[in-house]
Amino acid sequence: MDLNYTPEELAFADEVRQWVRANLPPETRDRVLQHQHLGKEEQVEWQRRLHARGWGAPHWPKEYGGPGWTSVQKYLFDEVLSEEGAPQALPFGLSMIGPVLIAYGSQKQKDYYLPRILRMDDWWCQGFSEPGSGSDLASLRMKAELDGDEWVLNGQKTWTTLGQYANMIFLLARTDPAAKKQQGISMLLADMSTPGITLRPIITVDGAHEVNEVFFDNVRVPKENIVGQPGMGWSYAKFLLGHERTNIARIGRSKAELARLKKIATEEKADGVPLMETPGFREKVAAVEIELMALELTNLRMIAAEQSGQAPGAEANMLKIKGSEIQQTLTELMMEAVGPYALPYNPEAREHGWKGEPIGPAYAAPLAPDYFNYRKVTIYGGSNEIQRNILAKAVLGL
Amino acid sequence: MDFNLSDTQQMLRDTAARLIRERYGFEERAKLLASEDGFSRKMWATFAELGLLGVEIPEEHGGIGGTFQDLAIVLEAFGRGMVVEPFIPTVVLGAGLIRAAGNEAQKSELLPRVAEGGMFLAFAHGEPRSRYSLTHVETTAKREADGYRLDGAKAVVLGGDCADRLIVSARTAGKTSDRDGLSLFLVERGAPGLKIRGYPTVDGTRAAEVMLVGVRVPGSALLGPEGGAFPFIEQTIDRGIAALCSEAVGNMQALNEVTLDYLKTRTQFGVPIGSFQVLQHHMVDMYIAHEQARSMAILAADRADSTDAQARTKAISAAKVQIGRSGRFIGQWAIQLHGGIGTTMEYSAGHYFKRLTAIDRTFGDADFHLTRFANVPSPSGRGSG
Lengths: 398, 385
Ligand SMILES: Cc1cc2nc3c(=O)[nH]c(=O)nc-3n(C[C@H](O)[C@H](O)[C@H](O)COP(=O)(O)OP(=O)(O)OC[C@H]3O[C@@H](n4cnc5c(N)ncnc54)[C@H](O)[C@@H]3O)c2cc1C
Hints:
The structure holds two protein chains of two kinds. Chain A is of the alpha+beta class. Helices cover 44% and strands 15% of the residues of chain A. Chain A has helices at residues 7-23, 26-33, 40-52, 71-83, 91-104, 107-119, 233-243, 251-267, 279-307, 317-337, 367-373, 384-394; strands at 124-127, 143-147, 150-157, 168-174, 185-191, 197-203, 209-222, 226-227, 269-270, 273-274. Chain A has a four-stranded mixed sheet. In chain A, α5 (91-104) packs antiparallel against α6. Helix content of chain B is 50%, strand content 16%. Chain B has helices at 7-23, 26-34, 41-49, 68-81, 87-101, 104-115, 230-265, 277-303, 309-338, 348-360, 366-375, and strands at 121-124, 140-144, 147-158, 165-171, 182-188, 194-200, 206-218, 222-223, 267-268, 271-272. In chain B, the strands form three sheets. In chain B, strands 1-4-5-8 form a four-stranded mixed sheet, covered by helices on one side. A four-stranded antiparallel sheet of chain B has the order 2-3-7-6, with no helix packed on it. In chain B, β2 (140-144) and β3 form a beta hairpin. Classes of the chains: A alpha+beta, B alpha+beta. The complex binds flavin-adenine dinucleotide (FAD).
């Protein structure tokens, strides 16, 4: 055993670091590190720069534009980007629909959509959940009926993340009402500007507009916009949800946040003593740091197994469970660190390019809203209860 | 021991509960929050009419001369409704300080106005660098021929943006963090040199940053003994904490009810989600967390006005720790058990959670009070003091 990275791996990480330092716009970096919302342009611009360097889709096979990295390289890439304050890649195109199209899409779909995903010509969103179908996704009711050369969509999707920026949606709909639950479901692609699609913002408790309801009223999309076979949508969806393994724990990001927490807790003083030096707080930070170390090693063990050819199964769900819990603890400690200055609510300070006078320390404004916002990470992408159910059944055989 | 309510308390509870039920629904509250002031002056007038602003104010000053426990009953109902009017700043902190430290002239001028709803108060004590410490005061008060000159900055002053009068703590002697040398002053909202930057807080109530640059007040503005205000400050914050505890208990109860109701009605996989055992267990732990919090809030209300500072401090800090922990536990799990809907602005659960979070961050968080509790020796070996 050797728990250290090889010299080649370290050199790779260094190369990535140098490149990011030279290419990440400083304003974008500041905004990411200060937890401000990014603009659409900023997100797109960053993806284009990565793509131009050949690093637009670290997880894709080489023939579709991936860099052909090892699992360790992919992991290091993600970690370095997080450390350096690069925007998080949006998952919808790169990690969700992209891999599905690579595996099951028609040649035409691959040729058209994959390069567009790499360049971020399209902003994709995910239309799975419905008001009555959350954890029990297979109970979804949205209908798609074939009428000549078109599918006619009727129904409602909800919780559609960043749908307000999206021009494309991939969705699940029932194409065979007679078939039982999972069997009658298909995966379809729709242009968000198609007549009959309307969007209603949902504002979350932190005051942000991140999710939406999307309504479909006799929306007509071309027949060829189905992915793979009719009635197979459920297995594609499972493939999609299970596909993104390496980044799901967000370890790189949590490490960067841990460093930020320590910095804030050093600047904050309790009776003149830096909070980081008071026993209670110091130990809480240490506790989450240790959890994170353990998760990192667990993740690396899985990556090593994957590299030697063992496909990870439901074990990967533990990354989601632990990773999301750690992210929540970090937002909680960050908010605690600023004490009474967690209370002022100054939403403008989280917006793209705000330059006003802060209330209290400049870093305080987003911390409590982040804490509220991050309650979502144990809910979305399959709640942690559902992840545990899957582990219980698939791994423990219960 | 007797945990039963007196007749007056029954009456207060019914009055406050009816008011919240009939006039303070979630939708109505949302409208109040969206208004210019962020709360309703009309609602404030109703509180006054019902006698809720003068519960603790002596009868000769227009109140009903009740105890802190009486007030706690009102606060619990207000917690259930997530009342946004500046009740704790004005009634508990402001009027409480004046009652405790004020001279006859100050009491008879100010207390009746609070009781009848004609005056908002705020206690401007915390400072940008004080965190939760009560002795860390850098603001100074220098004696001048006919009064004092105040300079300094006050942070996150609850209710500070609408207060007609602020009670400002300042140093007339001593160094930062000394207990001695602190004094209190009544400062008019319009005083030259006073700058108030009001803002909403994360839970929808309001606060302010207050700057004092050469603010001049007459000698009659001194509230309590010069240089000897610390015991009053400490007791007032303890009373504020006891008030927050009662409010939090009402809040937690309402949040648990909303969540329980959701578990019984939301179906997934063809069954109510409350039939999943893991959710049942979380809900049971939330129920226990609320009962534990209630017990400590009762203790805090009982000890809030105790003259035995050590016994009071111990009970109050213990309660604050329990409330902080229960509030966090119930708040976080309530959102989780709701799934997506719990994360939205248009649904009540998230708002209860935000208020509970704000309560944990006010007047010292659970860590701070854990240390404070540990540092007070137990009188006669009984933990509950
Ligand atoms: C901020 C945010 C962004 C999202 N983005 C998207 C998106 O872009 N696209 C999209 O399609 N969806 C999105 N979602 C939806 C997300 O996937 C669902 O919220 C999630 O699957 C849970 O469904 P639900 O909200 O309906 O909760 P429910 O399924 O109603 O669950 C409520 C509670 O019951 C528990 N529960 C349910 N079933 C079981 C069981 N069998 N055993 C034990 N416990 C159970 C859950 O864990 C939860 O605690 C998003 C959600 C959020 C909050």
